[in-house]
Every structure is written in structure tokens, then in C-alpha cells.
Amino acid sequence: MLSPMKALLRRDLRLAVRHGGESLMPLIFLFAVIILVPLGVGPGPNLLASIAPGMIWVAALLASLLALEQLFRPDLEDGTLEQWWVGAGSPAALVVTRLFSHWLITGVPVIVFAPLAAEMLYLPDSALPTLMLSLLIGTPVLSLVGGLASALTLGTNRGSVLLSILVFPMVVPVLIFATGGVAAAAEGLSASAHMGLLTALLILAVTLVPLATTAALRLNIE
Amino acid sequence: MIFHRLKVGFHRLGSPPTFHKLCRVLSPWLWAGFLVCAAIGLYQALYVVPPDYQQGDSYRILFIHVPAAWQAMAGYVIMSILAVIALVWRIRTVEIMTMAAAPVGAAFTALCLATGSLWGKPMWGTWWAWDARLTSMLVLLFIYLGIMGLYAAFEDRRKGARVACILVLVGLVNIPLIHFSVEWWTTLHQGATIRLLGESRMHPSMMSPLIWMTVGVKLMFGAALLDRARNDLIDQDRRKNWIRQLIGEGATGDNA
Fold first, then answer.
1. How far apart, in whole angstroms, are the C-alpha atoms of residue B223 and residue B33?
2. Domain span including residue A61
3. How does B49-81 read in b/e, with b if 16+ C-beta sit within 10 Å?
4. d(Cα A218, Cα A181) in Å, to the nearest integer?
5. pLDDT truncated to tens, each residue of chain B (256 aa)?
6. CA-CA distance, A45 to A52, in Å (whole number)?
7. Could you say which of B139, B162, B164 has the minimum Cβ distance to residue A169?
8. CA atoms within 13 A on the CB side of B195
9. Quick one: where is this thing mainly located (chain B) (predicted)?
10. What ipTM goes with this model?
11. How many domains, chain A?
12. What are phi and psi of B127, to 5 degrees?
């Protein structure tokens, strides 16, 4: 049961390390967005501090979209995806593994470098732990929802635009609760309600999304 | 015996010619019902019901806004039920009906947002507010558009319909969010005024036109749904024999 998952995770991570430049693209993109913000809205620290939670989250969301197009497509094209169904492991477990490796590759670097982005936008230090926590709970949801959208659009040939249209309505709640929590923390209020709701979203996504993603992939390899 | 005949009748609906016939027979009646209900409802709404003591005449837009909003959500629930049937029993006509529900639901969502916006400008002083109810309704519109886009992006229409059915079920999460958004978050949009259980907080004279309009809108949803499903079916099966027979033996002879 576990060995196909382990093999897939090891393969995905090894590929990510060997294609180092490509794997760093989402992170570079995130910082490109963060750098553009002060140039676009002006460098006033007060304004930047107030929009920092939203901007960092929007940038993280956009960055997570980058790698989605290629999440399942190469495996579909070379026939590996079909092996998920005929092989020993459960397809749903392999889907979860693939989504987990997507999060490790695109989500974790964003969390690690979030303090730098926060500093660039003058986010108050008191809000930084909440920002990190919100990213820790929220970015897996982005990977899960993005993976679902990627599986749904797999059979189409103009996937990428459609993919972002599908992702956008599904991640609205994540964005609302995450930025709401960080904004509350910046004003010295408790963010526990927001973080609780965000965790509820994560639990909902973890339980339902792999099933829907597996069903969508199955339809696409038929 | 009756149950058996119902069951056979239901299974026959899976056959495209039977489904087509049913749509063609039902749809004019639904359109007629809509016109009658809407005529009565609009007459009462515009001439019979007195103006509001605060809002004057501008509140009358609610007789379109509220039924459209209800139908936007009810339409999604109907579409989800159809999607479950389509995914579980793999009935092609139901897949087509599910996909036909999306544009109609999207139209009602857009109508609800547009009428709300028109009312909001004089009453709230703004066309739009990032309030929980408004935002979740806007998200619903984009879910509807996503379903339509996904269905349209597939070359194999059946596969597209099945994949889009999964998206329909995922998007169902948003419906309770819209419904309870006015209770969970205290923002600009008012709470529920009309209750099925217990007393409504609306003046009784306004109830009658609202009920007529709601029934009318439901009938119109059904009519538009059946018409769209029928057109999609004809489009998909246009090279098949039963369509040729439908057009008439003469056309078949010309082609052969």
C-alpha cells in the first residue's frame, strides 16, 4: 500500500530537485508580484502594511497556479497515469501523494520565504506568525483545489485559462479567512476564529477533493 | 402495476427520441404557465401593491430580484441532483439536461446581481458592496460559468458533460454558504424576510405577487431547461437516423 506512494513521492521530489530552476519559478513569480505592488500603488509604508496580507496571499495563489498545468499532463501523455489504475496502489492514494508533492514543491517555499515578503511590504511583526500559520493551513488547500481543477481540465486542449477560472471561485473562502485573520492579528485582535474556519476548509478539502480528483482523472483516461 | 408502468416510463426517458418528444410537448405548456403567472404577478406588483413607506416605488424590483435569486440557487440544487443521476446511472439525456441547467442558472444569477445592483444604487448609495451575500452570489455566477466553460472545452461532449458533472457537485458547497451568508456575517444585505416556517416579516399584501412571480420563474426555468436540452440533443444527434426520421422521410430520401 505505502510503497507506490513512497516511490511516487521520491520520484516527484527528485524531478523537482533536478529541474531546480523550473521548481523555483513559482517562488520567483511570487516575489515579482510582491515587488510590483509598491511600484504600482506607491511606496507609502502605511498603505503597504494595510494591503500586505491580501497581496501576499494573492501572490501565493497566483504562484500556486503556475505548476498546475503540468501536474498530471506528462503522466497522461506517457501512459503513467493509466498505470495508477492497473498498478498495486490505490489511485486515490497516489492522487493524494501527487498533491502532497505539489504542496511540498510550491507551497512550502512560499511559507519559508513569507517573512521576507512580509518585510518588503512592511507587515507589522505582530502579524507575521499569523501570516505564516495562515499560509501553513491555506496553501495545502490551494494545492488540493488546484489539483482538482487540473484533473478536470486534463482532457481539454486549452486548459490553462479554464483552470484559473475554475480555481478562482473555489479559493475565495480561503483568501477571505486567511487575509481576515492576518488583518485581525495586525490590529492586535485574536485570529483564532479565522484560523479555525481556515482549518475547517482544509479538513473539508482533504476529505473531499482527492475523491473528486480521482473521479475526474478516471474519466479523462477512459 | 402503476409503479411498474412509471418505472418503464422513466427508463424510456433515457431514449433520445422519447426524451425529445417529452420536451417538445411539455415546453409550450411551461412557457404558457410562465406567461400567465408573470402577467398576474407583474400586474399585482406594479398596480395593486401600495408603495413602500420608506422606499417608495423602487422596492418593486424585489418581485424580480427575489424569485431570480431563489431560482439561481434552486437551479443549482436541481442541476446537482441531475449530476448525481448522470454520474451514477450514466444516462445520456440526464447528462444533457444537467449541462442545459448551467446557462439558465447563470442567467438567473446574473439577473439577480443586476437587479440588486440597480436597487442598491438609490437605496444603499452604491452599485456594489463586497458583502457576504453579494460576493457569494458572484462566486456562484463564476461557478456556473466554469461549468459551462468546462463542458464547452471538451471535444467529446459526453466526456465533457461527465467531467463537468463532477465540478457541479464540488460547487454545491457554495449553496449553503450563500443561503446562510446573511445570518453568519452581519454585513450590508438584509437577513431573510420570508420564512416557510413561522411568520414572515414582510407585509402580507406583497406576498401574493411574489408567489406568482416565483411560480412563474420556476416554470420558466423548466421551459428554458427543456428547450436547451432538446436543442443540445438535436445538435449532438444531427447525423443520427431518428433525427432524419423526425425531419421527415422526404429529407432522408434527398440525402440518400
1. 10
2. 2-221
3. beeeeeeeeebbbbbbbbbbbbbbbbbbebbbe
4. 37
5. 788 888 887 788 888 888 999 999 999 999 999 999 999 999 999 998 888 777 778 888 889 999 999 999 999 999 999 999 999 988 899 999 999 999 999 999 999 999 999 988 888 888 888 888 888 899 999 999 999 999 999 989 999 999 999 999 999 988 888 777 767 766 677 767 766 656 666 777 788 899 999 999 999 999 999 999 999 999 999 888 888 888 775 454 444 4
6. 10
7. B139
8. 7
9. membrane
10. 0.87
11. 1
12. -70, -35
Interface of B with A (CB under 8 A): 87, 135, 139-140, 142-143, 145-146, 149-150, 153-156, 159-160, 162-164, 166-167, 169-171, 173-174, 177
Q: Do B142 and A216 touch (CB under 8 A)?
A: no
